Amino acid sequence: MSSHREAPEISKDPVADSTDVYAFVSPDSCDTVTLIANYLPLQGPAGGPNFYEFGDDVLYAIHIDNDNDGRPDVSYEFRFAVEVRNPDSFLYNTGPITALDDPNWNRRQTFTVTRVEADGRRRVLAEGLACPPCNIGPLSTPDYAALADAAVHQLEGGRKVFAGQRAEGFYVDLGAIFDLGTLRPFQQLHVMPAFTQPAPGVNTTKALNVHSIALQVPITDLTCGGRKPGDVLDPHATIGVWTTASRRQARVINTTGHDTSSGPFVQVSRLGNPLFNEVLVPMGRKDLWNSQPPADDKNFAQYVATPELAKLLPVLYPGVFPNLAGYTKPRADLLAILLTGIPSGVVPGFQNYTGDTQADMLRLNVAVPPAANPNILGLVAGDAAGFPNGRRVFDDVVTVELRAVAGLTLPLVDPSFTPDAATSAITDGLTPADVKNPYLDTFPYLGVPYDGYHNPSN
To answer: Model-level pTM greater than 0.90?
Structure first.
């Protein structure tokens, strides 16, 4: 959660496990969109001697659909390479790392970023770009913020790119939610009599890190025909965004301790909307979902139309959700929010509709400007610059999606339905204040990663 270890097979392959995707009009550069894809979930900062890094054998990509068919029209591909400078040392670093090319850094990683068009045209935007090291501690990485700043690479045309470790910005009470759907605000009402009073949420991901691929590009790089829409209701104003990780089809393990991969790349992970595979897709189809393109998500729409969690809530909390329990129609609100976008006329002055093709993508209307006073509940709280219009790093997507599943958004498409009173109180009890290392106001927006000396465990 959002997509940490969300399927059986990808949970065994954290290097390729996409955890979160963000897409938003950059608040400090409003002519650009920032795209962020996170990988390697739940990193303990004291992860030595083999600290975390991107996989040299993984093809990472961020995809954009701008013609409403659930297939990529623009993709940015990222490939990584590691240089071991002293193979006779067990150390990640042999002294303080004070620069990205510091000889004390024994396992330096670089990357190449390539733009791929729908017709197959490829253009390498940059190669040999340095990742920062992991944040080890005050002796090994004495000025980590400066190292990270140096790893923000300026590309032509005002574009920026970064790939490296960041503080986990996604806050969630995993322990409670996966303990048979415990919702701490009213856990004492749970059908199992284990609780006597409500309790505050616990941020399971506090003081943990991820690896981020962040890209900031002009809006015109992403839209159909290179437009820069100024009207929110313009049908060309919305793009779809998702990320994937792919591995070679064949892998041979040899007796030297290394392996060789060959064959075409095969998709093993993907992510668009937060929690989609995690909460909606059943266990027996999660691995299949990870291998499919968004264009084929009509095959999974039934799990959005009749979500298991919506059936469980009235059972787990007897008498708390009577209206939800009595609702038997397909969930047209969730189908719109997650699979087609919201058409014009549903939310006054807003739309992020991408047509009839059912596809799990973050949908970002690029004509919506950044909010002057952002609300972490995004669109449902009147802030059209927030989730589910794209996703900002601080958006409280867990609360938004739990409330939506519980019926809060149903009146948008079915005025005859009245949400249960408890619906607007649902939350996992967390806010951005529960993120220990704060977000940044500028690219790459996620905070400085936690170091192992001060944060040896969560």
So the answer is: yes
